[in-house]
Amino acid sequence: MEAAGLLMLAAVAVLLGLTGLPVFVVLVGVSVLAALAGLAGGVFGPAVLTALPSRLTGLLDNDLLQALPLYVLMGALLDRLPLAETLFGAAATLVRRSRAAPLLAALGVGALIAPMNGSVGASAATLGRVVAPRLTQAGIAPARSLAAICLASTFGVVVPPSLVLLLLGDSMMRAHTEALNATGTLSRLINTQDLFRGAMAPAALLLGASLLLAWWSGRKEQALPLPRPGWGRLALAAATASFIALLLGGVALGRFYAVEAAAMGAFALALGGALSGHLTPKVLNEVLTDTMAASGALFALFVGATTFTLVFRLFGSDRLLASLVESLPFGATGALGGVLLILAASALVLDAFEIIFVIVPVLMPPLLIRSPDAVWVAVAALLTLQASFLLPPLGQAVLMARKTVTGATSTKALVRALAPFLAVQMAVLALVLAVPAMVHLADPPQAPNPPPPAVQEPPDAPLYGMQPYR
Hints:
Elements: H1 4-19, H2 23-40, H3 51-59, H4 67-80, H5 83-94, H6 101-117, H7 120-137, H8 142-153, H9 155-158, H10 163-183, H11 192-217, H12 231-252, H13 258-276, H14 281-314, H15 317-326, H16 331-346, H17 352-370, H18 374-389, H19 396-404, H20 411-434
């Protein structure tokens, strides 16, 4: 019956493609049916299922989840308030001497707001609504404009300290715990701050290369001059950009917690919107409604993923998956390549959060047994997801941007516009895979002769309902 868990994964994929139901509904439905089948077949008894309520209760005790609605609130405020437009105008003015100024401004705004928006879809919606019309106004070709929106919306996947990195760091910590317990190895556990530091160098390289490519490809662009914002809007943009950079940099460098930064960011955005008169009661109601809806959907996804992974492991499918990963050729390199291919394929039908809560808990523990550098594996996974989100025509960034950006753009033209940026991303991914030390450039110096930490057991009520790896 170990193959039952793999059938569960296949059933989820098929139902998502055929029904269009929310992911959490499909996860819970498949889990309930599989659990009933397991009980009827005598695979496990009803007593083991009594662990589910305590796990769901413990789910809400996780301190990390305090940051989730705050990140969503910041994204909703950025979407409803004209801050992104102000930042774009100021950035375009800053690089106005370059013919590629509109494209550079679009990528710069994406690098600032994507980590705060929380998801690729939210970033694509904001950038498509605010930045795309300005690119059209500047005379940028539709395909190049759409490609810039797609690329900028994915920066939140790799630029710390985004919500994606925050949640992946927690999931990787639990997967790392299982791998260490399975091997009996004494080693320091990965934490979220390790992932933030590990993503810094690849993210900086990716951002720099993307900006350089946008400048090079746009140097012959016949862009029309955009209206220059007044000094008041420039001052507001400078203050906003400085505040965002302070928040993101402070969290990435470990100066304060992500929850604290998210709370400060949400409060500052709300206060600025209220003082400027843009955060009217109607807009505030829309912001809070969007925040509650998005946060509720994510919490529902947590519940579905917790239920799914519990039933998956009750069938012993985690052991089967571990044996499959161990049987891959070319050792640790083959195992990493196989898992990254699965993640890339999953990104064509699932978003980053769904992959973190459903795919990562079952794939990463056996992979980390063979590739023990958890930070390196996590950064490689992030770069793989970002590249997959950009693949036309099914990449999530492409689909979401096309829903938001007006005007028809052929897939062929979009592929030509995105190809150079995808090549840059693949080059950065290849460099990270070839030089694992790249993700450790920002690591703090280790204390001399530190005492070896004991292998830690997962918390009593883990976030995703995971059991120790067997």
